What we know:
Layout: H1 2-26, H2 32-61, H3 67-93, H4 98-112, H5 123-140, H6 146-164, H7 168-194, H8 199-219, H9 221-227, H10 232-240, H11 244-266, H12 271-291
Helix pairs in contact: 1-2, 1-12, 2-3, 2-5, 2-7, 2-12, 3-5, 3-7, 4-5, 6-7, 7-8, 7-10, 8-11, 8-12
Amino acid sequence: METLKCGVKYSLELLNNIRNSANSLKDVSESKRVSDYLIKNYSFSGAATDLVGSMFYDMSLGDEEVQKERNFVGKISSRLIILADLTDDILDKRPTSLDEKFRFFDNVTMNLFGHESHSSPDLEEQSSYSLAKSIHRDFISKYKNAKFKKISDELVDTIKRQFTEQDKDELLEISKIIGSCCTDSTAVLAEIVTGKDYHDVRNAANKIGEYSALLDNLYEIDNDLEEGVNTYPTVRIGEEGDTSSVRKDIKNKMLSIANNSFIEGLEHLDEKNKSIYKVLKGFVDLKYKVLRL
């Protein structure tokens, strides 16, 4: 019953976020061209990822939540994950050299932490740079906290490793690390803005991140094969052939590992937070298994 109530609550919030997501992206950049691009392409994902940050905030604070603080965490969470998605698309889909990919990636990171200010005439690249600058302006410059930098450093190093790694088992671990870092970067926001630790929630965030990344790799096999992306499924298919039996074995293994990650995330949560966590898993399943977004 508690899970059902949570499901209704967050589904209604998601619908409200969708209606208001355009407004939340308008102040990313002074450039109307950039704002229009983000609104057109990321309004729905922005609404959903705002909700992810808010859900982790709710799990951390419970009845002590502050609405203004919660809204802020949701906004930064949304921009972080949109930035990750947009940057990932540019890295994967463009036929550029490894050096060019890493140069762009490093430029985004430098904008994020305010070390340098990069721009580009390319609309997608400029949108990434503008998002990174907005996160630095609104969050990183105001909350100078080593926790976020540590997660970011691990994420950057792991993504770079993925480009050249060919060992399928290593790629499986890389996928889990990338997923856990992405969701942990949203869960840690509650710790940073409150100055308190929420270890069990952070662990749950890491595990649902693993779950999400494994589903992403599994259900994006065809796109990743076309784009030449190194993942556990694409390397296995390259080694063993693109057959129904190979794909079935890949699916069974990845879903089993993903389910184990989800169960590990549940272990130390209280009953209320377990309900929120199960609803979050439901949203992830809806995205990958039903909507195939």
